[in-house]
Specification:
Helices cover 39% and strands 17% of the residues. By secondary structure, it is of the alpha/beta class. The strands form three sheets. The protein has an eight-stranded parallel β-sheet with strand order 7-6-5-4-1-12-11-10. A two-stranded antiparallel ribbon has the order 2-3. Strands 8-9 form a two-stranded antiparallel ribbon.
Length: 223
């Protein structure tokens, strides 16, 4: 199967204002994978948006920016209340895996040491790989997220290539895929999927009259 492009209705790590209307205007895009964050949107509006996405035949993703165990458990409850299909990108805790067990929500936590807003990734290649393997050993973890282009302790693409060679589990690449060069690297890396958010709301991939046109143009580059 081709790489899954996950269209995130987020900009600067927050769900965009009027996200439901943005989705309604662009749901005809080729990608079947859509999501948003739990920041910048209320629980009632999030529930409505997830339902609208599912009614349109989309697979839904929630991407929290949480590090504390308490915060991650709250985010997991938010995802359960909204009936997301996936929770991706937040810090791993076994308690969260247990909370999501039996809900039908697939859990793709992030790995490596992250800090700041946006979350930057630190550590050696081996430290990040070892952390991913540690997390993936737990029941209830179906895949892993890697913030490739937010890696600051070395060459991001060298780290990602070593990671993929060492970790044989579904991988979602998150954050800062905002130009054709990076998109080409992701295409060649062949992860399970990748998120694209802020680049939908700026001119990173060129100017388009509509977001769905940009998404379709990016999809064509992946084929």
């Amino acid at each position: 199967m081709s790489i899954r492009m996950i269209a995130m209705l987020t900009n600067h790590d927050k769900t965009v204002p009027g996200a439901e209307a943005v989705f309604a205007d662009n749901q005809g895009a080729a990608t079947a994978f859509w999501g948003f964050k739990d920041v910048g949107i209320s629980l009632p509006d999030a529930k409505k948006l997830v339902r609208r996405m599912k009614d349109a035949g989309k697979v839904t993703f929630m991407e929290p920016l949480i590090e504390s165990e308490e915060g991650c458990l709250e985010a997991a409850q938010f995802a359960i209340d909204c009936q997301f299909d996936f929770v991706v990108g937040m810090a791993f805790y076994e308690s969260v895996a247990k909370k999501l067990a039996g809900t039908g929500i697939k859990y793709f936590p992030t790995c490596g040491r992250r800090a700041g807003i946006p979350r930057m990734l630190y550590g050696t290649h081996q430290e990040i790989i070892d952390d991913a393997k540690r997390i993936l050993a737990y029941d209830g973890v179906e895949g892993i997220c890697l913030s490739v282009y937010r890696y600051v302790d070395g060459d991001p693409e060298a780290m990602a290539a070593e990671f993929v060679a060492s970790v044989d589990k579904p991988l979602i690449i998150t954050g800062s895929i905002g130009n054709d060069k990076r998109l080409e690297f992701v295409k060649n890396l062949k992860p399970w999927g990748f998120t694209i958010g802020s680049a939908l709301f700026d001119d990173s991939f060129g100017r388009y009259a509509h977001i769905y046109e940009k998404l379709d143009a990016i999809s064509a580059k992946l084929s």
